[in-house]
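pipeline: protein-struct stage 2 | run 1193 | Sorbitol/mannitol transport system substrate-binding protein
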Amino acid sequence: MHLKQRPRGPGARVGPGTAVVAVMTLVAGCAGAGGTSFGGGDALNVLMVNNPQMVELQKLTAEHFTKETGIKINFTVLPENDVRDKISQDFSNQAGQYDVATISNFEVPFFAKNGWLRQLDDYAAQDTAFDQDDILKPLRDSLTAEDGKLYAEPFYGESSFLMYRKDVFAEKGLKMPPKPTWQQVADLAAEADGAQGGMKGICLRGLPGWGEVIAPLTTVVNTMGGTWFTEDWEPRLTAPEFKKATKFYVDLVREHGEAGAAQAGYAECLNNMTQGNSAMWYDATAGAGSLEAEGSPVKGKIGYVPAPVDRTESSGWLYTWAWGMQEASKKHDKAWEFISWASGKEYETLAGQQAGWANVPAGKRASTYAHPEYRKAASAFAEVTHQAIASAQPRNPGVQPRPTAGIQFVGVPEFTDLGTKVAQEISEAIAGHQSVDQALRASQKLAEKVAEEYR
């Protein structure tokens, strides 16, 4: 596929790209360790999470982006918890080791405020082929900081929904409601448990990490009437609603969830669902592309419905893995060329042709949902995903006012530490090493320390 020549960023000089030879360590799957190879010179160093769509991009980069632009890319690809730590360390130090990194709508406000990110408005405005207006508004808004400037471009956008085995449900005479409640899901998990050899009723994240177990758990807390903090920063982790939701989640995964749930995150649940070890999975909408990819053992067997609810109309999260450019980088113009390619319409076409249309990094562009090949390949989940992203309410995700925006997280820098420590307590409860009450009492004390900073 021929890539149209994009204009370089503001102030760039037009000329052939030069680079030194770099070794690219390809990651074969989403659960393995990545590698680093820094070539120096004009090569770009890109740090990214090891989700399947990123791994596919890594495979396609040399043959397509580098061949067209002459810009070589050195990738470092790491699991989610590891990549978050490395990104925070590198960007906060502003050493410029990495030119581009996958950051999320959680980090953008803080990274931008601290001057760690290069604003991208001027690049996007001059790069007409990129078509910034085609980016879905919830994603654009979530990557725009308080100063009104854009600081990242989405690689893919996601909400959360419930995935289930249609064939297994049919065999067992089970019916999935079009908008299930969490109690209905729990009842269905009990019925589906053991439906096939080695199959559990549901897979839910239990792995410690603010972006792992805390993400789905917090959506359950929200819809069951709980909140981490009240509008005036009163911690509520031991409140009845928070307890009810957490106990419900822990009991569900302990009774009908995957083996080793306390160490299972997104990647492990994706593998369980793909291999037929789970009848249901509540998680990111991005997982559907892998389930429906060519060669997937469960392709065509999965049904998709909105995130389960209790007291709210919707409960899906809003999240994006996006490309952020480090302010300290000396290669801003080349970095934009990579970002423009990796988040562009043409890359989605390339990914569709190479990896299958169901597996493109969607959830970010209106044009994707109008593309006939994508609509055909992703017919099982495209509309549910689109609606989930559109209905997400980051400023009003529960039944009471919040002090910050955020659905599956609290929008303050301290949440990375707080959420991870609370996650460790929750995972201990999932593992059976302590009760939910014990976990939440310890978590409440941690939240009180954060609240003191904001009262």
